[in-house]
Amino acid sequence: MSGKSMDNQWGTERVIIFDTTLRDGEQCPGATLNVDEKLAIARQLARLGVDVIEAGFAFASPGDFEAVTRVAKEVGTIDGPIVCSLARAIKADIKAAAEALKPAAKGRIHTFISTSDIHLEYQLKKSKAEVLAIAEEMVAYAKSFMDDVEFSTMDATRTDPEYLYQVLERAIAAGATTINIPDTVGYTTPSEFGALIKGIKENVPNIDRAIISVHGHNDIGLAVANFLEAVKNGARQLECAVNGIGERAGNTALEEIVMALHVRRQYFNPFLGRPAESEAPLTNIDTREIYRTSRLVSNLTGMLVQPNKAIVGANAFAHESGIHQDGILKNKLTYEIMDAESIGLTNNQIVLGKHSGRHAFSSRLQELGFNLSETELNKAFLRFKDLADKKKDISDWDLEAIVNDEIKTT
Ligand code: KIV
Ligand code: ZN
Description:
Belongs to the alpha-IPM synthase/homocitrate synthase family. LeuA type 1 subfamily. Its cofactor is Mn(2+). Catalyzes the condensation of the acetyl group of acetyl-CoA with 3-methyl-2-oxobutanoate (2-ketoisovalerate) to form 3-carboxy-3-hydroxy-4-methylpentanoate (2-isopropylmalate). This protein has 410 residues and is α/β, with parallel strands linked by helices. The protein has 15 helices and 8 strands. Helix 14 crosses helix 15 (396-409). The relative contact order is 0.10. Residues 24, 182, 184, 215, 217, 247 line the site of zinc ion (ZN).
């Protein structure tokens, strides 16, 4: 899938989902993951069906280097996702990324440099001409290690578009197969972002040699809306993180953008020649794995999901008011635009209590993203029974507390 594009037939063409939970997602305060935790998330991301996993920033620390290598080796198999490492546009970073990615069947180096005036003046202290030359040279250097090279223009949405076009042109000429347009500070708006992507398509020579990618942050709550406009205008790779975790207000939430494209797939219909009524999915994501992935990421990072969070919040499929409950009982479509089952909430209706058996308990845990050994399961089940004697209904939060406690104490 690396290179120019995915299939051009409307039925099989897809928007590429690039997951950065393990890199940008992990960059939020308190969300640090160890190598085994990263590996567990990477395996689940592969089950979810993401196309690319950004496993870390190999040069940043020995732990990140090891995480990229382990994910590359254990998850980056020939049928698995592309495994990617971030690298500044600096030779030492690029070399470390290439080294860490060696075990991957399909590896990608993702190199970046800032392009906005404010970053050039205060952060890089370099002229536009210097940055242009570095971008070209470093993409070519990355290309000397592998064919699949992504190039990002950091702070693209605050960059002079004419200059942005020139940098992108040089990166493509040097061999970038994906060019990524980050809204680094979460500043853009949907119409502005859509126009930027359109401008890039129309003004960058040889743009059809690369996939246009977008990377979003949610500082003013527009990350998903910005991506929808980007897709309408030609973006074909979306960079996002599970539960929207990431720097400051976070990255574009994977589950939200994927379900927006899924629920409204006929409306967005971004592929040329695709019939308006087409039911074909727009991404490769198995949406039934979404809930499990969300719970796993929340448990391992310790980043709680707010109850009213779209798609994966505890209340996302709960109906409280009598009018809504009445409508739902008559026909679910009255107040539901998607099924709880479509994100993998199959056991939601089963209330766990003191009469529940081991099978219901274990299947609920699996739904929550836990794959326990037989011994761990037995111990957790005993604790569950103990709690169920004292408490009428056991919530998912009770179950997660039991299991987290069990895993920590065994
Ligand atoms: O937000 C950003 O600009 C980034 C880049 C490294 C892609 O995370
Ligand atoms: Zn970012």
